[in-house]
Amino acid sequence: xxxxxxxxxxxxxxxxxxxxxxxxxxxxxxxxxxxxxxxxxxxxxxxxxxxxxxxxxxxxxxxxxxxxxxxxxxxxxxxxxxxxxxxxxxxxxxxxxxxxxxxxxxxxxxxxxxxxxxxxxxxxxxxxxxxxxxxxxxxxxxxxxxxxxxxxxxxxxxxxxxxxxxxxxxxxxxxxxxxxxxxxxxxxxxxx
Length: 192
Known about the structure:
By secondary structure, the chain is mainly alpha-helical. Among the domains are: about 40-135, no CATH class; about 145-175, no CATH class. It contains 8 helices and no strands. It is extended.
């Protein structure tokens, strides 16, 4: 009888674990957006694909540019209908990506690069969503965000931190005494 007690305990633990699995699953309403629903960003999603596969011949370098086509800026891509916002079937760049003719297909075979199915799908969805170009982040002037109005804060950084804590439903930690602060600074400075 004493030998079966651990066995029953193990079975009870497994049974309880199996019952708790559905409780750990996120609610159906919190399901992530499907890829076709998410808004694509040129800088995050499209620029890396074009940079790896297209900019060598259709980028900013005028000496290396082929067909006088620029895909790194909207003006160049929209000018000769290489990309028609909202209409991938009218976009010459999209048609060239799908082509099986070695003289028409992009990137060309001698470039030794091809787009994956996922990259093609991303480009098509971006064109369908309006093919919005964005400036490279380094050319966008920084903007100061509005400081949240939080009572009892001493500086703007604390206001942002307190606002985020409130959004997450968390309370700030109590202020540390001087001895604790000195210990923390010492550990920080010594790298421990």
